[in-house]
Amino acid sequence: MYYIGIDLGGTNIAVGIVTAEGKIVKKMSVPTGAQRPFEEIFQDMAHCIRTLLTETGIPEGEIRSIGIGTPGCLNTKEGILIFAGNFKYGKLVNYRQLMKNHFDIPVYIGNDANVAALAETKVGAARGAESAVMVTLGTGVGGGIVLDGKIYEGHLSAAGELGHLVLVHDGVPCTCGRKGCWEAYASVTALVRQTKEAMLANPDSIMNQTPLDKVNGRTSFDAAKKGDAAALSVVQKYREYLADGLASIVNVLNTEVIIIGGGICKEGDYLLGPVNEMLQKRVFGAGLLPERKMVVAQLGNDAGLVGAALLHA
Amino acid sequence: MYYIGIDLGGTNIAVGIVTAEGKIVKKMSVPTGAQRPFEEIFQDMAHCIRTLLTETGIPEGEIRSIGIGTPGCLNTKEGILIFAGNFKYGKLVNYRQLMKNHFDIPVYIGNDANVAALAETKVGAARGAESAVMVTLGTGVGGGIVLDGKIYEGHLSAAGELGHLVLVHDGVPCTCGRKGCWEAYASVTALVRQTKEAMLANPDSIMNQTPLDKVNGRTSFDAAKKGDAAALSVVQKYREYLADGLASIVNVLNTEVIIIGGGICKEGDYLLGPVNEMLQKRVFGAGLLPERKMVVAQLGNDAGLVGAALLHA
After folding, report:
1. Yes or no, beta carbons of A254 and B284 under 8 Å apart
2. Which residue of chain B has the CA closest to A146?
3. Chain-chain contact of A248 with B282 (C-beta, under 8 angstroms)
4. Does B25 touch chain A (CB under 8 A)?
5. Residue A289 in 3-state DSSP?
6. Residue A123 CB contacts under 8 Å (≥ 6 apart), including other chains
7. What is the ipTM metric for this complex?
């Protein structure tokens, strides 16, 4: 038996045939065209599925479910997208019905951050754990919670918005409308802002070899590794922001594992070693309870696709 | 069938016989004597149980379980207290065995804040809800999480430490060792500190009619209601601290109901009306999702005892 996993992003749609163990048999990707009506987007998805079935020789009858991971707020029970800023027509869209128009196969949907967390917990970095939270550092700070091997969605499928934990009361404005969210300090977007501020405040810093409009998440890290003091202090502060938010998450949810995802994890131990040390000191009961386990995500871009395929379980 | 509920506090032990519906048949209370060895404390508990059985005429055979709510960090599966600052001998104490020495009845234990949340969710302010968090404003900020009708404890039974969500990165030191926890801003202890600071900074405020060492959680509220500007600003800031932490909790857990407990809830709508308004505006998806439901705890001091009795379920 096989499962279809679809990672419906704002830019690309990735579609794959996945085994029960979360192995990708074959996958393909097409542009989303997020400005188009959903009927067209789903037509493309259906076409991808048929292409993959033909190319692998797997008969449609062996596909047990179709899972769709998508940004936005969902009613997963009914298979409906409630709203998403990423799509032009992103309000009250019946994903399940749209897919049912093409295939008579059970359809499941899940928030993209949640399905990634599910994939990493079931078959990725936290394999074997009963519970995990996944924090993805990118444009924003994404969050997903898996308890007892299942996505924890909360009452209105709106739980797990870990980026919108407060970090600084009355702090920097967040895209969500309130001030001081963790995302406004610990996202890569925030790191870029912090880097630019430090560059302007420290004209002698070697970070200024990079033009302001070319600054990215690596700029401060690269300079810090060369011993640049201003860059070091950006990196150290960023680590503290990360650790402080993670400590809050541990204090509330206390999952078996914390998974950190996003491109910035490539900084590896240079970023996460000190973060882990700070975390262990800041959690409630520090020193009295065993250390909290923190791991780096393993599935990369496939997490969404694989997690969507695992939604049936 | 009946259930024994025990609320083992640092000062008093309350013991009660409770029905399956959470009604107290009869209860009594004795001083804890927290400096004594646990054998003596459990002897007193057993004595209370026997007294209540005799007085009610309920035979021991009709008691289905004994539940103990206690401060501290627990291994609830094994029935063991891992540590608690409140008791002189509060480390690695086998509560279950200590009670089994007196009664051959199943024994369950739970953290005091958690069992209170369970009681309010099952038979109190959030009756009928599938999920709830309870936040108790007192010396600290206590927290309990109930999901699918059960206490959510997390991996090391250390979840639900809602008071130790960060509110202000690098802020006021908290008793837990880190800086800026919500408890350090939203507890009554914090409110008293904020009140004193405002009194010193505003010598003309009528709050100064109260001597500094007599200031309590009501001082600023009483003066604010009389129109005192300095007091009003203490109250308003306190409401904001409360709302901001609650918004974080909603963004992570998104339970059906939020229960607020503690003596300060007697301020009623004057405190909680504005807090609720702020909360609805600060949660993620504000305006796009239905309002979050916030209620005041109903069971008062009985919540611990009743919740402990409900631990069997």
Report:
1. no
2. B154
3. no
4. no
5. coil
6. A21, A22, A299, A306, A310
7. 0.93
Q: Which amino acid is at B266?
A: K
Q: Does B154 touch chain A (CB under 8 A)?
A: yes
Question: Token pair for residue A257?
Answer: 């594992």
Q: What is the dihedral of CA A294, A300, A304, A310, to 10 degrees?
A: -70
Contact B155 A289 (CB under 8 A): no
The answer to whether A155 contacts B180, with C-beta atoms less than 8 Å apart, is no
Q: How far is residue A58 CA from its own chain's centroid?
A: 30
Q: Are A96 and A107 in contact (CB under 8 A)?
A: yes
Those residues whose C-beta lies under 8 Å from the C-beta of residue B1, and which sit 6 or more positions away, are B20, B62, B63, B64
Lay out the sheet containing B257-261: strands in order across.
Answer: B150-151, B141-147, B132-137, B257-261, B293-296
Residues A155 and B192: their CA atoms lie apart, in Å, by 35
Per-residue DSSP letters for A168-234?
Answer: BTT-SB-TTSSB-BTHHHHSHHHHHHHHHHHHHH-TTSGGGGS-GGG--TTHHHHHHHTT-HHHHHH
Q: Which of residues 244-303 of B touch A (CB under 8 A)?
A: 244-245, 247-249, 251-256, 281-282, 284-286, 288-290
Of A107, A95, A102, residue with least CA distance to A38: A95
A83 touching B (Cβ < 8 Å): yes
Tell me if A289 and B131 make a contact (CB, 8 A cut-off).
Answer: no
Could you write out the DSSP letters of every residue in A101-167?
A: TT--S-EEEEEHHHHHHHHHHHHSTTTT-S-EEEEEESSSEEEEEEETTEE---TTS----GGGSBS
CB contacts of A131 in chain B (<8 Å) are: 154-155
Within 8 A of A278 by CB-CB distance, chain B residues are none
pLDDT-based confidence at residue B135 (cuts at 50, 70, 90): very high
Query: Is A162 in Cβ contact with B252 (below 8 Å)?
Result: yes
CA–CA separation, B249 vs A10, rounded Å?
Answer: 28
Is the Cβ of A80 closer than 8 Å to some Cβ of chain B?
no
Per the CB < 8 A criterion, the answer to whether A109 and A74 are in contact is: yes
Which tokens sit at B266?
A: 């007697």
Distance CA B16, CA B22 (A): 11
Task: Mutate one of B194, B249, B281, B282 to test the A interface: name it (highest A CB count within 10 A).
Answer: B282
In tens digits, what is the pLDDT along chain A, a chain of 313 residues? 999 999 999 899 999 999 999 999 999 999 999 999 999 999 999 999 999 999 999 999 999 999 999 998 899 999 999 988 778 888 899 999 999 999 999 999 999 999 999 999 999 999 999 999 999 999 999 999 999 999 999 987 889 999 999 999 999 999 889 999 999 999 999 999 999 999 999 999 999 999 999 999 999 999 999 999 999 999 999 999 999 999 999 999 999 999 999 999 999 999 999 999 999 999 998 888 889 999 999 999 999 999 999 998 7
Q: Record the pTM.
A: 0.94
| Option in A130, A156, A247 nearest B254 (CB) | A156
- DSSP character for B237? H
Percent of residues in chain B assigned helix, strand, coil, to nearest 5? 40, 25, 35
